[in-house]
């Protein structure tokens, strides 16, 4: 999710956040904008990235005491100038100032569901036709990304593979992949050519969970994921929006909050 700066992060999460910001700065520095106060300190930021023909917003925020003064609008305008008309997407909070900004900038807001709970392991089906993914899978994964969201993740795949487990469909006729965060026991990005493969990949991610898990960024076009979550006895709630411009909501697809 495009991250609000409200609750202080844990030490580990802060470290990961800083690492990710460094990465965005390295790959596409022109998409990274900060607002600076009179004393020279950073009071707001919009970190966005172009990957081929797609733009995404990774994180966006203005310090609370500076909000509502037009700083967010200037940051968003700069980020969108960087997009240069590319289709774009990001996962948004429900913050009223944020959603106002996004709709005024022409984004369609697709409500997202999230499913939480502990997987009832007796419901886990035997899934076949999957294997561990490798860097030489990136080429077809990017082609699949292009079909689903207009452009591949490009270098983001390598960044994710260094930190996450990648599971892919072994059948080139029905491609799909999921990244699994084994620390948190959940899938963080899932893409497939058709819903059945997507469901198999989500089951694999659920099988990797320990204790409470989370399936998020589920838009209404992705009810295939709701069916898996319900079968695993997770509970459905609502959480923010997938904001898209110049594209349909991707499906079968569960976006990554960080790399969309
Ligand atoms: C979203 C955010 C970055 C916008 O920055 P900002 O400097 O407050 O934005 P602006 O002042 O340029 O614009 C906010 C707009 O929302 C309106 N607004 C502000 N607070 C509002 C509120 N509580 N309810 C409704 N509208 C509100 C403002 O009037 C303004 O609209 P206008 O320009 O048409 O009058 C900032 O509010 C923020 O950091 N929010 C918390 C973190 C967050 O949710 N980030 C987004 C993650 S996806």
TrEMBL record:
Gene3D superfamilies: 3.40.630.30. InterPro entries: Acyl_CoA_acyltransferase (IPR016181), GNAT_dom (IPR000182). PROSITE patterns: GNAT. It comes from the Bacteria. Residues 1-125 form the N-acetyltransferase domain. This is N-acetyltransferase domain-containing protein.
């Amino acid at each position: 999710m495009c991250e609000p700066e409200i609750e202080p992060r844990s030490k580990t999460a802060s470290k990961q956040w800083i690492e990710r910001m460094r990465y965005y700065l390295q790959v596409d520095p022109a998409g990274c904008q900060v607002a600076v106060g009179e004393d020279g300190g950073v009071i707001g930021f919009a970190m966005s990235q172009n990957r081929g023909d797609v733009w995404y917003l990774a994180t966006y925020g203005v310090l609370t005491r500076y909000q509502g003064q037009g700083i967010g609008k200037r940051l968003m305008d700069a980020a969108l100038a960087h997009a240069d008309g590319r289709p774009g997407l990001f996962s948004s909070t429900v913050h009223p100032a944020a959603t106002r900004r996004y709709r005024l900038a022409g984004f369609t807001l697709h409500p997202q569901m999230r499913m939480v709970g502990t997987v009832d392991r007796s419901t886990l089906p035997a899934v076949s036709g999957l294997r561990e993914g490798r860097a030489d899978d990136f080429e077809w994964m990017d082609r699949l990304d292009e079909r689903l969201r207009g452009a591949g993740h490009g270098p983001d795949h390598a960044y994710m593979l260094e930190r996450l487990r990648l599971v892919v469909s072994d059948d080139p006729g029905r491609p799909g992949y999921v990244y699994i965060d084994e620390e948190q026991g959940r899938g963080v990005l899932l893409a497939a050519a058709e819903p059945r493969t997507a469901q198999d990949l989500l089951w694999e991610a659920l099988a990797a969970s320990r204790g409470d898990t989370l399936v998020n960024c589920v838009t209404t076009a992705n009810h295939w994921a709701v069916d898996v979550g319900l079968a695993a006895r997770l509970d459905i709630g609502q959480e923010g929006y997938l904001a898209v411009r110049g594209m349909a909501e991707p499906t079968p697809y569960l976006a990554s909050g960080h790399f969309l």
